[in-house]
Structures are given as C-alpha cells and as structure tokens.
Design goal:
The complex is a heterodimer of chains A (286) and B (150). Chain A is mainly α. Chain A has eleven helices and no strands. Classes of the chains: A mainly alpha (286), B alpha/beta (150).
C-alpha cells in the first residue's frame, strides 16, 4: 500500500507530533472536566505550560535511578508510538509499552519514600489489571484478521467493531486505567486530592516529572490509536468513534468516585475476561 | 525561544503546596475554598499539588512555633527553584494574637524568606488568589532582572 520509506517517515513524524496531539487532548480533557464541574478551567495550552515550567526547574533528585527510569519510560513510550505508526507487530508494541510502564514503577521504587513506594505498588497492580485485557484485545484482532501486523489489520476490509463490539468495551476499561481516570486513579491522581497525594510520581520532580508527562501523552496517543484500529475503513466514522469514546471516559471520570485496587482487580478482570470469552466464542462459532 | 516559553510558562502554571503551621484552620478552609467552582483557581493554571517536590508556590498559614519551624524549613528546602512563598493570615504574617506566647517563633518570615503577605483573619479566598498572582508578578520582575544581568 505504502512504500517502506514513506512508512518510516510517517513513524518519525509521529514521534514529533504525538506529544503535541497528546498534550492538546489532555488540555481539552481538563477544560471539559472543568466545564462538567461548572468551572471555567485552565487554557487549552495548560499541559504545555506545565511541562515547559517543569523542564525549566532546578534539577533535584534523590538518586540517579529516577532520572534513568524517566528517560527509559519516555523512550519506550515514544518507541511504542513509532512502532504503531510504522504498522509493526501489535504484540511487540504491547511489550515495549509494558517496559516503559514498569520503568515508571522502578524509578518510584528506587526511593524509600512511603508515598512513592505505595504508589509504585498500586501502579504495578494497575498494569497487572490492564495488560491481560490489552493482550486479549490484540489476540482477538488477530483472530479476526489472521495476523498481529497492523498493516494486515488495516488491510482487513470490514470494520473490526462489528465483529468485536465487546472487545471495544474491554479496551475502554484499559483506556480508563491508562488515562488515570476515576474510578481507576488509584496509584496517582492528576489533582492530588487523595491520601497518596501524587503516588507513583511523588519522587519525580522538575525535568523528570516533565518527561513522565510527555511519556503519558505518547501513551494516550497509543491507546487511542488502538481504539482507532476498530474502524479503519472510514474516517467519517473513526473520528466520531474516538471522540465519543473519550467523552464517555471523561463522563465516567466525573461521575465515579475513586475505588480501591481490591475492587478494581476482580471487577475489571471478571468483566473484561467475561466479555472477551463471549466475543471470542462468538467469532469462533461464527 | 524555548527559554522564553519556559519563562512564560513559569508565570502560567504555579502549582501550590499548602502547609498549615499550627493555624486555627480558618485560613486553611479559605485556602481550600479557592479550589471550589466558585473561585476556580485552575483558571490561572494553579493546581493544589500537595507535594513540595512538584510545587512552585508555598502557601503557609498559621503561627510558626519551635516544633514546626523545622518542618516548615524542610518543606521549603524540598521545593526546587524557582519558588515563591505566600504567607496567609494575621498569624502567618506576625504570629497574630499568639505572638507573645512562649512557644511561638512569630511570623513565617522568621524562618524562611516570604515573597507575598496576605493579611486577614482569616485571609479571604480572593485575597489568597491575588497573593499568588502577586507572587507571579514578583517572579516576572525577577525574570526581567535575570535577563538584564546577562
């Protein structure tokens, strides 16, 4: 369909453009959330101001592992997006993404601060919760299209959503956990109104906090990209589908209270694995 | 150009950490009231971040005494530069009605440098928001001076 050079160029462009898109989505998210709470909210560019300010702050870290982990996290997330846009193997992409997510925890574990430690443990539980779901989503895509390659998924001529509607809901759970939305903002919350304050982010400061934020933007783009794979045949449906999905996440975020991991793990696994089982059986029989 | 954007961003995104140094809770309630939809400090990019390692502005309420002055200094030292300090309420400014008590050190400025003083007993939410904005105005002045030096 495309030449190799074009695809590589597209991948490199995505590394540059994904943080901009991720930042704008985050800005829009904060603005909409504020409107839902009848507040005016911050300007659309606020996430960029935050990151630039953090970048310019004095560099203070407890130890070198935090800096190292922050850089690995952002590199892994950028690689995830790059691999996604050069239409690589979905399983490979998932593994690279998991490396980044785990390094965020390793950095937090490198410091004896209790906030950071508990935050990292909860973050690991969150990864533990959504990784099987993401893997199942990818496996069911392969079950329908016959390949883990994104290029083959794109070449498939009917929308995946019609065959995997339940898997889209499963992906919605993973998206909510990945975006740190209530009721899943267990390891760290954007607004620090919880007993763990900043959780897994506690010990990242200044430039390294900015790096984790940029890595988060890459992840937002990646997970939305996964959602986009569900309707690749028509842009006119794909874009509204993504907008509606994200809007539902924001509404759930505003309507739900934060829960505990003891609730999250069984609930998400039970619903996620149950829905996957139904959907995969249905494909297998049909 | 990137440096200019960072300097602009420093004025646009002041994250606050709020420390109660033995206040009667009056000023604390007024500070937290700033987060409500009525005052909505997120308009100015202000977030109550609750972690000194992430914060740019330290809001201190209440009298400083011999026990908590160490905590105040510790929190201040954990904040990376550039940082601003806003003292809120009569007690934070001078020690208020407790200034003659034997255990009281006095105002916040006896322990750490204070940039903006917000008077009142308690300080009004509007005044506290204004205090943070004043701190930003001071930061803008400092940025200008820094540019002149170079």
């Amino acid at each position: 369909m495309y030449s190799t050079q074009n695809i590589l160029l597209f991948g490199l462009l995505s590394i540059l453009l994904a943080p901009i898109a991720g930042g704008l989505i985050t800005g829009l998210d904060r603005k909409l959330t504020a409107r839902f709470q009848s507040r005016t909210g911050p300007p659309l560019m606020q996430p960029f101001y935050d990151v630039a300010k953090l970048w310019g702050k004095e560099r203070t870290t407890t130890n070198v592992w935090i800096a190292f982990s922050a850089w690995v996290y952002v590199t892994a997330s950028a690689t995830t997006v790059f691999l996604f846009f050069i239409q690589s193997d979905l399983l490979l992409i998932l593994f690279v993404q998991a490396v980044g997510a785990v390094f965020l925890c390793i950095g937090a574990f490198a410091v004896p601060s209790p906030f950071s430690q508990i935050g990292a443990q909860r973050e690991l539980l969150q990864i533990f919760t959504y990784e099987p779901l993401l893997t199942l989503v990818v496996i069911s895509m392969a079950a329908v299209t016959g390949s883990f390659k994104i290029s083959d998924v794109l070449a498939y001529d009917s929308p995946l959503l019609l065959e995997l509607p339940l898997m889209f809901i499963v992906l919605g759970y993973a998206l909510a956990i990945k975006l740190r939305k209530s009721p899943f903002d267990i390891s760290a919350s954007a607004h620090a109104h919880q007993e763990l304050v900043r959780g897994v982010y506690t010990e990242y400061s200044g430039r390294y906090l900015a790096l984790t934020e940029i890595a988060h933007w890459y992840e937002v783009v990646f997970v939305l990209g996964l959602c986009a794979l569900f309707w690749t045949t028509n842009w006119m449906i794909l874009v509204p589908l993504l907008i509606v999905t994200y809007l539902v996440e924001i509404i759930v975020d505003n309507g739900a209270a934060r829960m505990t991991w003891r609730w999250m793990l069984p609930t998400v696994w039970f619903t996620g694995l149950g829905l996957s089982l139904v959907n995969l059986t249905w494909i297998y029989l049909g | 150009m990137f440096k200019k954007f960072i300097e602009k961003s420093q004025l646009k995104s002041p994250w606050i950490v709020h420390l109660d140094c033995g206040s009667c809770n009056g000023c604390d309630i007024e500070t937290l009231a700033c987060l409500t939809p009525m005052y909505d400090i997120e308009r100015f990019g202000i977030l109550n971040i609750g972690n000194p390692k992430h914060a740019d502005v330290l809001i201190v309420t209440g009298t400083v005494n011999h026990r908590n002055k160490h905590i105040l200094r510790n929190v201040y030292n954990q904040m990376p530069e550039p940082k601003m300090v806003v003292a809120v309420g009569a007690c934070g400014l001078t020690g208020g009605v407790f200034r003659d008590a034997p255990n009281v050190v006095g105002g916040v400025d006896k322990v750490i440098p204070v940039d903006v003083y917000v008077p009142g007993c308690p300080g009004k939410p509007e005044a506290i928001i204004d205090g943070v904005i004043e701190a930003l105005a001071k930061l803008a002045e400092l940025q200008k001076e820094g540019r002149k030096k170079k």
